[in-house]
Amino acid sequence: MNRVIVIGAGPAGLSAAITIAESGYEVLILDEYMLAGGRLLGQLYEEENGKWWNGIKESKNLHDKAIALGIEIRLGTPVSNIEKTDGSWVIYTDEETYYTHHLLLATGAAEVPLPIPGWTLPGVMSVGAAQVMTNVHRVKPGNRGVIIGVNVLSSAIAMELKLADIDVACITLPKKNQVNKESGNPMDVMNSLLHVSHMAPSAFVKFGSKLMKNEFMKKMGITFFPKSGVKMWDIPIMLRKAVINIYGENTVEGVTIATINASGEVIEGTEENISADFVCIAGGLYPLAELAAVAGCPFYYIEELGGYVPLHNERMETVLDGLYVAGNITGVEGAKVAISQGVTAGLAIANNLSGGKQEVEIKEAIKRIEHTRDNAFIQFHPAVKEGKQKLQQYWEEYGQQAKVEVTI
Amino acid sequence: MTSRIINHPVLDKVDDTDIVTFTYNNAEIHGLRNESLAAALLANNIRTLRVHEESGTPRGIYCNIGHCFECRVTVNGLQGVRACLTPVQEGMTVSSGEKFLTPVKDWRSNNE
């Protein structure tokens, strides 16, 4: 029962477990995937210093370190439910039921789907699926793809597909509908692209960051954005086209695209077909927090963090005793931030187990999260810091409220 | 044709020598030991993993990491197994998810 349990063997879960084990406590990690590393596995990009961030190597380093510390990692083990009974957390899996006083949820993020006619055809997949196939399993998702959704993730993965010699016909927008309002609006997309322009070694940089300082110029940028797109890594990025349909008999054969105006409305008569044998849908990421929900954590919707996040404090403690969170479940950010959050959660758990011996380290670890965030190469949302401040405020308000309830 | 990426400009070369044999809808398929069923099937140009239980329209992988449950297949007699999370093993029997015999429909007269 003294063993700490971590759900999720990604960067946050692994680094938390390592921190806990280094403090002398036993840890078990559960993860439903066949490999340790989580979404970190698929990552591959060149950093400013010219070095490659290789997710497979980074995952292996964390995994090997955990194993060397005697941490048990059970892969292929989906957790179906958690609940608190008689003061301890009960974790249900297909085979066994586990009990602990300290449970860390490091379940990461999932991708937002963009429903488009034809999207159930085999060959249509999330952009992350294509990334995992290409970089982790090393099987081509197809020979020629179209990526729907222009954002940080899709731009990065388009480049990774090119690296593996997979042809990307274009990156374009989805037709605007009730579900994908923002990702179908060229103006919103342009806004969100301004902070990734440093990743693009091309004309896109000039187009993005220099021209687009004010609303009028952005509008002009969209209006005069070339219909054939602007190329990034030789892949046309089309902000003035949208996919209106994915077609194919029993598998993807291509997409129908049409020209759209500056607010995303389709201009009739401009439809044309682009042939492709796979299509990637890139709707962005949201925190994967079902287990925190079934446990009874209060949630807040914070757009800057990617969606609904379970309420937690800087020490990664939720309002529920013995339940902690770290990584993308607390908001969508890069793997390095997830690692520093994992360390903080690990210290908070060790501190609670030891009766308060790690207070100094926790304070330093919290500062390190901030530092990592400030220096992150990829920022999924430009205002992530404001999102974190909002959450902190909610935490304080919740604490006040709880005190009032107790007094009554 | 879909194929494997053995050599990569940044990542290590893939060891494609540890081959296992399994069956998919009674056809013999070769995969690499411990790769996911979804990857092994895609490497063999198989994209359709099941059909929709009611409409019969084809489905393949969508998220590839276990969240969406679109890739459910039957493995060694067990239904609803996610192909993207299941490591391929020698002698595995895999079949695609099928259409239900009876359409799910409310037959009451006031629902017609």
Give the helices and strands, then pairings:
The complex is a heterodimer of chains A (408) and B (112).
Chain A: E1 4-7, H1 11-22, E2 27-30, E3 44-46, E4 52-54, H2 55-68, E5 72-74, E6 79-85, E7 88-93, E8 97-100, E9 103-105, E10 109-111, E11 124-126, H3 127-137, E12 144-148, H4 152-163, E13 167-174, H5 186-193, H6 203-210, H7 215-223, E14 230-232, E15 235-247, E16 254-259, E17 272-275, E18 278-281, E19 285-287, H8 290-295, E20 299-302, E21 307-310, E22 323-325, H9 335-354, H10 359-374, H11 384-407
Parallel strand pairs in A: 1-2, 1-9, 2-5, 9-22, 11-18, 12-13, 12-18, 13-15
Antiparallel strand pairs in A: 3-4, 6-7, 7-8, 10-19, 14-15, 15-16, 16-17, 20-21
Helix pairs in contact in A: 1-2, 1-9, 3-4, 9-10
Chain B: E1 19-24, E2 27-32, H1 37-43, E3 50-51, E4 58-59, E5 72-75, E6 78-82, E7 93-96
Would you tell me the overall average pLDDT of chain A?
89
| Count of extended strands of chain B | 7
Instruction: Please indicate the percent range of residues of chain A in DSSP E strands (runs of 2 or more).
Output: 15-25%
User: Uncertain spans of chain A, ≥5 residues at pLDDT below 50?
Assistant: 198-213
Strand-pairing-aware structural class of chain A: alpha/beta
Largest sheet of chain A: 8 strands, mixed
Distance between the termini of chain A: 35 Å
Which residues of chain B form runs of ≥5 with pLDDT under 50? none
Largest interface: A-B, 41 and 39 residues
| Rg for CA atoms of chain A | 22 Å
Count of DSSP H/I helices of chain B: 1
Structural class determined from secondary elements of chain B: mainly beta
- Radius of gyration of chain B equals 17 Å
Q: In what order do the strands lie side by side in the largest sheet of chain B?
A: 2-1-7-5-6
